[in-house]
Each structure stands twice: as structure tokens, then as C-alpha cells.
Design goal:
The complex is a heterodimer of chains A (426) and B (280).
Chain A lengths: L25 H12 L1 E8 L6 H8 L17 E11 L2 E11 L11 H20 L15 E6 L8 H10 L5 E5 L7 H17 L12 H11 L4 E2 L6 E4 L2 E8 L2 E4 L8 H11 L1 H24 L13 H108 L1
Chain B lengths: L3 E7 L6 H8 L24 E9 L2 E9 L14 H18 L15 E6 L8 H10 L5 E5 L7 H17 L14 H14 L2 E2 L6 E4 L2 E8 L2 E4 L8 H11 L1 H23 L6
Parallel strand pairs in B: 1-3, 1-4, 4-5, 5-6
Antiparallel strand pairs in B: 2-3, 7-8, 8-9
Classes of the chains: A alpha/beta (426), B alpha/beta (280).
Chain lengths: 426, 280
């Protein structure tokens, strides 16, 4: 009998190469492949109507995404997703921007966060469904999961609104939240610092997990650390250009001065762009997949009754679990079917009995009616006989009376004759 | 007519109400300066806080009551949040009515009625919110409402004009009569003057500040930003000066008269009718 000996060592040995092999081209191969495939990025913008979401998106991506400003009369919150194909150098980006229409406008905002959570979950669900398919095409899959959620905070200068805290708390375990202060040109410099600290401390004290710029990789650690100090970024958006010096720059023109969007002394727009697009876009996508999506998947599967290990801590194979689930399900189906059949039979019996009863009643009624009819008929016959008898009697009496009358008349006329004779005698 | 005036400011928190009221009276008259600090939590229900002051200028003393409504519009569910405010205003009318029907009346009935309500609209740049419309619909029937666009330094000149037009249109479409109400114009002169204010200037787009800066050799109230100083009293920057002149210098007496002759009388008639013609 063949004897297999498997030698396995867990230590990896470092070897040195005696010549150029060429696998140092792997990163390039990866880049080429990714570039030809194109990238996709999905941003969710959450904020009140009129706070500048569309304008900021236009400013960030240096283009005009066609959209009409929303009215304030929406009865509820709904999400509007729009996808665009952008290209820079030879890199293609499929960008999806999801907008929360009507957020913050209703008088009763208890349910405002729900459509947002549902949307995010729906994207996770779609991905999960694809992943669980037997014949699946994940590499081709158009990923619609939200990679970054920009939460627009109104520039009150005081603190976060209760709606902000509630919404962010509901979203922080589902998506990377990046809070930003919108329309920041309305806050003076000294007030801005206080406002930022207040916001950050409120987020911490309420346990809201916002997106942390990664500091583990040396290439980005430094820049991420310095930028994190300025959170939340206070931004100003503008697609209009104003002449500053001898250049045209994106800015907002006021009677008292010009706010330059890309001037770091005026606002944190440049910082946001750096962090969101130029440094951490890939990390945002990764976090979405490895943290938020995995959490969703785990919860969903556990809900469905799947476990990774059974009570004895022996690993379940997915297949066994599937089989068990399937049989259970079929068994239930069968049981239901039997129940329904039984119920049906019972119902038919009941109906039959009812109908029989009704028939019996009808028969009885018919007999009763028949009898009544007979009686009536007999009564009528009796009455008829009586009547005939009476009639006969009457006729007899009439005849007798007539006879008497004629006799009387005769006697009368005889008497009159006698009287006449008597008279004539005298 | 009493020398007392009551001014109420309502609107969501963070719109600069207290700063504006302070700027209006060039004095620290708002709730924020009387022992309240920014760190206080937003209340869970609407509260009414009235603080009285006596201010003097040129020998004329004025008793000013500033009423603030913290918590309005700040909850997640704001249904009927204007009711406490409506109730407060009616309570002041009730107080006055009770004094008026007394047999032995005071020579001067203390007037705590609200003469003017400044409603602060958030400068979204689009239009009014459902909450704004509901509040103004209900309250324009019991008090003089002056809508004001808060934090106007967030809009450029074009945005401001467009926004104002849209707000005016929406108020008209919803039948909201803000002060000065068309129906109370006494003569033609009043009407033309008020028409101009109604159709062009209102709602006033204001910026408030209690800090002074040096501009062109003068000390002015303003807001300092890295791109310039916003002068509060400069008409090219914002309409604060128009609001101030309107409320204090030209129409203060009229505000009180309309409150007394129209709003109070409406309340009184309704109360007496409900009571069957008898005083309460």
C-alpha cells in the first residue's frame, strides 16, 4: 500500500535570488488590469434641503451634475441615485451620487433616517445575493454599495441637531461617515474652532463612530494624521469663477469680499478633496467591503439560522446546513399543504351537511304546504255543499211559497166571485 | 398707550436670534447675555423666556421685554410646537382683558402683550419650510409677524434677491399676512409706503453682530472673516439698518397700535362672545 508522508513546515524561509526573475512587475500588472476595468465609487450625501449638497459635488468633481434643486414640500425622505462616467488621464471612474431628497423638511422627522438605512441595506443585500448565487459573476458586478457618506452639518455655530445625532448613530455601523460643516463661509474663524470642538465632543459622547483616516500605512499615515485634526471639515462649494489677481478661481462673491473655495485659509475644501479622493478613496472602498458589508452579511446569515460552528464547536459545512434548512423548509411546506387539504375536506363536509339540512327543511315545508292546501280545499268543498243545500232549501221554500200564493189567489178570486154573486142577488 | 414694548424672536436654534436682538438695541438684552450660556442644552419642549429691561436714550425711557422661544423647531418631531407660543400670547391678552374689565382699574394697565414677533427664516436659498409656513399661518392671526432672513451673509446678492422673491410669493400663496398687514393701511400715504416695504424690502435679510472693528477709520459693528469684514450697518452688505429703522424708529408706535386696536380687540370680542357677552 502506498505510504504518503507529508512534510510540512510552518516556517517560511527567506531566499535570495541570483538573478532578475521579473515578478516585481506584479504591481504594474495589477494597475494595468484595474485601470482597464475601471473603478467605481458611490457617495451618499445626507443633509437638509438647501444646504449645498449638489453644489459641493459639482465643486469636488469639477463638473456640473445635472439636477434640479429640491422643493421643501416632500412628504418624506427619499433617495435619488444618479450614476456618471468620469474619465481622468486613462482612469475611468463610475461615480454614483445618492442624494437624500426632503431630509430635514418635515415637521415630524421621526422616520427620516429609515429610508436611508433601508437603501444602504438594500445595496448590501443585492451584493450578498450575488455572492450566494450558484452561477455568479462578482468580478463583473456593478457594486452599488455606499463607500462614503458625507453628512452635512448646518452651520449654526452651536452644536449638532438632535436629528443629526440620531441619524448618524443609525448609520455609523453601516457606512463610512464623514461629517462636514456646510456653508462654512457663514461662520467667523473664532467661532469655527469652538463649533468644531463642540461637534467632535458631542460625537464622542454619543458614541458615534465616524470614519477614521487610516494611519497604519506609512505612505499615508502622516498626512492622514495631520488632516484628522481639522475634522469636521468646514467647506464652501461654488461652481462660479471669480477673477482673483490674474487668475480665475472658484469663489463666491460678496459685497464685502470674495470667498475662495480652494484657499486653505478660507475653508477646508482642499482638505476634504485630498482626503476623500486623492488619498483615501481606495481605503474607503475597502472598509466598506471588509467591515460594513461583512457585518451586514454576518447578521443576515445568522438571522437566517446559519452558524459557523455547532453547539459542540465543530465547524458546520455550509452545504450540510443548506441541506438541513432545505429539508426543514420542504417539511414545513408539506405540513402546510396537509393542513390546507384537511381544512378543505372539512369545509366541504360542513357545506354538504348544511345543504342537506336545507333540503330537509324544504321538503318539510313543501309537505306542510301541501297539507294546508288540502285542508283548505276540503273546507271550500264543505262550504260549497252547504251552500248548495241552502240553495236547494231555498228553492223548495220558494216553490212552496209560490204554490201557497197561487192557491191563495184562487181562493181569493173565488171569494170575490162569491161576493159578487151575493151582491148581484140583492 | 404704555411706554412698554414687547418683542418676541422665534425660529430654530442657531439662526442668530439673540445676537440680532442684542444688535438691535445696542445692548446685551437677549437671554444669552442674562446668565444663559451656549453650553446649555437645547430644551426638549418649547419654552418661553421673557426678560425685562429698561433702556434710555435722549431722555426717553423705554421698558423693553424681550421674549425668546428656545426649543422651537429643534425637536425631531415638531408637531404643534407653535402651540405654547400661541398660548403665551393669548395669556397676555387675557391678563390685559381682566384688568380692563375691573371695576377699580389701575391708571395704567401694565402691558405685557407681544407687540412684534420676529420670525427667523433659515437661509437655505430655496424656499420656506413647512414648519415656517405652519408657524406663520397660526401666529399671524394673533400677533404682528415680521419675517426676517437670518444669517444673510451666507448668500450672494443674486441669491438673496431670488430667495426673497420666492419667500414673498410663498407667503402670498399661503395667505400669510405679515406686518404691515394690507388691510390695516389707514390712508393712501400709508399704503404706498407700506406697499413699497412689503414688495421690495421684506423680508429683511439681516446679519447681526455685537463686536466692533475698525473700518476706514471708523468703529463699526461687524463680522470679521478672512476675506473681508461684513459691516452690519452697511446697506450694501445687509438690511439690518432697514430692520432697525422699521421696528424702532418708524413703526414702533404703529406696532403697538395694531396690537392694541386689532389683535387685542379680536381676542376680546371672541372671549366675550364665547362667554355669552359677559366679561370673564
Amino acid at each position: 500500500m502506498p505510504f504518503f508522508l507529508v512534510l510540512q513546515s510552518d516556517d517560511l524561509r527567506n531566499l535570495s535570488l541570483s538573478g532578475h526573475v521579473g515578478f516585481d512587475s506584479l504591481p504594474d500588472q495589477l494597475v494595468n488590469k484595474s485601470t482597464s476595468q475601471g473603478f467605481c465609487f458611490n457617495i451618499l450625501c445626507v443633509g437638509e434641503t438647501g444646504i449645498g449638497k449638489s453644489t459641493l459635488m459639482d465643486t469636488l468633481f469639477n463638473t456640473k451634475f445635472e439636477s434640479e434643486p429640491a422643493t421643501h414640500n416632500e412628504p418624506g425622505v427619499r433617495l435619488k441615485a444618479r450614476s456618471y462616467e468620469l474619465q481622468e488621464s486613462n482612469v475611468r471612474l463610475k461615480l454614483t451620487i445618492v442624494d437624500t431628497v426632503g431630509f430635514g423638511d418635515q415637521i415630524n422627522k421621526d422616520d427620516s433616517y429609515k429610508p436611508i438605512v433601508e437603501y444602504i441595506d438594500a445595496q448590501f443585500e443585492a451584493y450578498l445575493q450575488e455572492e450566494l448565487k450558484i452561477k455568479r459573476s462578482l468580478f463583473n458586478y456593478h457594486d452599488t454599495r455606499i463607500h462614503a457618506c458625507l453628512y452635512f452639518i448646518a452651520p449654526t455655530g452651536h452644536s449638532l441637531k438632535s436629528l443629526d445625532l440620531v441619524t448618524m448613530k443609525k448609520l455609523d455601523s453601516k457606512v463610512n461617515i464623514i461629517p462636514i460643516i456646510a456653508k462654512a463661509d457663514t461662520i467667523a474663524k473664532n467661532e469655527l474652532h469652538k463649533f468644531k470642538s463642540k461637534i467632535m465632543s458631542e460625537l464622542v459622547s454619543n458614541g458615534v463612530q465616524i470614519y477614521q483616516f487610516p494611519t497604519d500605512e506609512e505612505t499615508v499615515a502622516e498626512i492622514n494624521a495631520t488632516m484628522s485634526v481639522h475634522l469636521p471639515f468646514a467647506v464652501v462649494g461654488s461652481t462660479e469663477e471669480v477673477k482673483i489677481g490674474n487668475k480665475m478661481a472658484k469663489a463666491r462673491q460678496y459685497p464685502w469680499g470674495v470667498v475662495q473655495v480652494e484657499n486653505e485659509n478660507h475653508c477646508d475644501f482642499v482638505k476634504l478633496r485630498e482626503m476623500l479622493i486623492r488619498v483615501n478613496m481606495e481605503d474607503l472602498r475597502e472598509q466598506t467591503h471588509t467591515r460594513h458589508y461583512e457585518l451586514y452579511r454576518r447578521c443576515k446569515l445568522e438571522e437566517m439560522g446559519f452558524k459557523d460552528t455547532d453547539p459542540d464547536s465543530k465547524p458546520f459545512s455550509l452545504q450540510e446546513t443548506y441541506e438541513a434548512k432545505r429539508n426543514e423548509f420542504l417539511g414545513e411546506l408539506q405540513k402546510k399543504e396537509d393542513e390546507m387539504r384537511q381544512m378543505f375536506v372539512m369545509r366541504v363536509k360542513e357545506k354538504e351537511a348544511e345543504l342537506k339540512e336545507a333540503e330537509k327543511d324544504l321538503h318539510e315545508k313543501f309537505d306542510h304546504l301541501k297539507r294546508t292546501h288540502q285542508e283548505e280545499k276540503k273546507k271550500v268543498e264543505d262550504k260549497k255543499k252547504e251552500l248548495e243545500e241552502e240553495l236547494n232549501n231555498f228553492q223548495k221554500k220558494k216553490a212552496a211559497a209560490q204554490l201557497l200564493q197561487s192557491q191563495a189567489q184562487q181562493a181569493g178570486s173565488q171569494q170575490t166571485k162569491k161576493d159578487k154573486d151575493k151582491k148581484n142577488f140583492f | 398707550m404704555s411706554q412698554a414694548s414687547s418683542l418676541q424672536s422665534s425660529g430654530q436654534s442657531g439662526l442668530g436670534k439673540s445676537t440680532l436682538v442684542n444688535t438691535l438695541f445696542k445692548s446685551q438684552v437677549s437671554r444669552k447675555s442674562s446668565g444663559w450660556n451656549r453650553e446649555e442644552k437645547i430644551p426638549k419642549t418649547v419654552e418661553i423666556k421673557a426678560i425685562g429691561h429698561v433702556i434710555e436714550e435722549g431722555g426717553v425711557k423705554m421698558k423693553l421685554t424681550v421674549i425668546d422661544t428656545p426649543g422651537f423647531g429643534d425637536q425631531i418631531n415638531n408637531e404643534n410646537c407653535w402651540e405654547p407660543i400661541e398660548k403665551y400670547i393669548n395669556e397676555q391678552y387675557e391678563k390685559f382683558l381682566k384688568e380692563e374689565v375691573n371695576i377699580a382699574r389701575k391708571k395704567r394697565i401694565p402691558d405685557t402683550r407681544v407687540h412684534c414677533c420676529l420670525y427667523f427664516i433659515s437661509p437655505t436659498g430655496h424656499s420656506l419650510r413647512p414648519l415656517d409656513l405652519e408657524f406663520m399661518k397660526h401666529l399671524s392671526k394673533v400677533v404682528n409677524i415680521i419675517p426676517v432672513i437670518a444669517k444673510a451673509d451666507t448668500m450672494t446678492l443674486e441669491e438673496k434677491t431670488e430667495f426673497k422673491q420666492r419667500v414673498r410669493k410663498e407667503l402670498e400663496v399661503n395667505g400669510i399676512e405679515f406686518y404691515p398687514q394690507k388691510e390695516f393701511d389707514e390712508d393712501l400715504e400709508d399704503k404706498t409706503e407700506n406697499d413699497k416695504i412689503r414688495q421690495e424690502s421684506m423680508p429683511f435679510a439681516v446679519v447681526g453682530s455685537d463686536k466692533e472693528y475698525q473700518v476706514n477709520g471708523k468703529r463699526v459693528l461687524g463680522r470679521k472673516t478672512p476675506w473681508g469684514i461684513i459691516e452690519v450697518e452697511n446697506l450694501t452688505h445687509c438690511e439690518f439698518a432697514l430692520l432697525r429703522d422699521f421696528v424702532i424708529r418708524t413703526h414702533l408706535q404703529d406696532l403697538k397700535e395694531v396690537t392694541h386696536n386689532i389683535h387685542y380687540e379680536t381676542y376680546r370680542a371672541k372671549r366675550l362672545n364665547d362667554n355669552g357677552g359677559l366679561p370673564p
